[in-house]
Amino acid sequence: MSDPAAENGLIYAFALDGNGGATAFGWDDLAALIASPTPVWVHLDRGQERVRRWLRDASGLDGLVVEALLEEDTRPRATALGTGTLVILRGVNLNPGSEPEDMVSLRLWFDQTTVVSARFRRSMALQELPAELASGQGPASCPELVAEIVARLTDRIGPVVGELEDEVDDLEDQLLGESTRELRASLASLRRQAIALRRYVAPQRDALRALAASASAPWSQPLRARIQEIADRVTRYVEDLDAIRERAAITQDQLTNHISEEMNRTMYLLSIVAALFLPLGFLTGLLGINVGGIPGSDNPAAFGIFVLLLIGIVVVQLVVFRILKIF
Questions:
Q1: Lowest-pLDDT choice from 123-127, 153-157, 221-225
Q2: Which residues face 15 on adjacent strands?
Q3: How far apart are CA 62 and CA 112, in angstroms?
Q4: Model-level pTM greater than 0.70?
Q5: What pLDDT score does 241 carry?
Q6: Structural domains of the chain ordered from first start
């Protein structure tokens, strides 16, 4: 089943049958569906004006819940609001042409019989859930549905963090090889991605811990344990992102030191060359002045003698540099 927003913002609405299946509904049936004791999942595109009007005027949700669902800029958190629990999460952006660290926000409010979720950009983590519900293989209750959504969002963070770890491994290997100048841009990009991911993954860890410990959330003991296990995984991802940032920073420092050593070595060689040619330049400049009395100006062999003298000076300099261990 496709995920684009349908019917002016209602992406899909399901009445769960308690056995893993669900029946889809549209806008016309939504009011009666919400008012019934049947477990319901309503997934909305918060960017649509009809959704905003419905949430404010017809959803029956607390005003604070509505504002949280429609808020533009959010960070992951979990808190009791109204008669249920508000959860704001982030998932990696796996939409075509997007960067994974440009994380997609998903807002949920749920209680024992209702889940209302809202998004602005499509979340690939939810793509398969409608088909599973239609085939009778989905979550059986609203708390199970929320736990499944949380698990799927978290599952997609792991491979992205793993790719960053592989990338920093490759950059460390490249630092040991011949090429170093091309690493700067790659290291900067890697650190930017790790920082952007951690910006939301770290508070998401805290939100999931709060969600697992929430007394207002309708968790069974197995679901509470599952949420806690997911929170532990997110904690590991945060630690991995911290390690990636530190390794990238160390690699960048090593790269800077390596480039500095190369520049120092180059300047050292240039200084040696300058020291070799300094006396030669002095002598050639002195004898090149256009005044009378230049020694050997009337001797045909003077030029050859002078060249040999210059060669001798260079040889003596090289011997002295070798004795002083200058090179």
A1: 123-127
A2: 23, 40
A3: 16
A4: yes
A5: 93
A6: 10-258 (3.30.460.20), 269-323 (1.20.58)
pLDDT greater than 90 at residue 227: yes
In the structure, what pLDDT confidence band is assigned to residue 225 with cuts at 50, 70 and 90?
A: very high
If you count DSSP H runs as helices and E runs as strands, how many of each does the chain have, helices first?
9, 7
Residue of 36, 220, 137, 94 whose CA lies nearest to 13: 36
CA angle 84, 89, 92 (to 5 degrees): 155
In degrees and rounded to multiples of 5, residue 176 shows phi and psi of: -80, -15
**Unique residue bearing structure tokens 């003596």:** 316
Q: Which pLDDT score is estimated for 2?
A: 42
What SS3 class is residue 292? coil
10-16/40-45 β-pairing: antiparallel
Integer Rg of the chain from CA: 35
- Taking the C-alpha atoms of residue 69 and residue 46, their distance in angstroms, rounded to an integer, is 8
- The span from the CA of 216 to the CA of 86, in Å, is 10
Mean pLDDT of the chain: 85
Question: Does an H or E element contain 16, and which?
Answer: strand 10-16
Q: What is the b/e burial string over 10-32, where b = at least 16 CB atoms within 10 angstroms of the residue's CB? A: bbbbbbbeeebbbeebebeebee
pLDDT confidence band for 180 (50 / 70 / 90): low
Q: What is the DSSP letter of 101?
A: T
Q: What residues form DSSP beta bridges with 106?
A: 89, 119
Q: Crossing angle for the helix pair 142-155 and 157-176, nearest 10 degrees?
A: 10
Token reading at 168: 């920093």
Residues pairing with 112 in the sheet: none
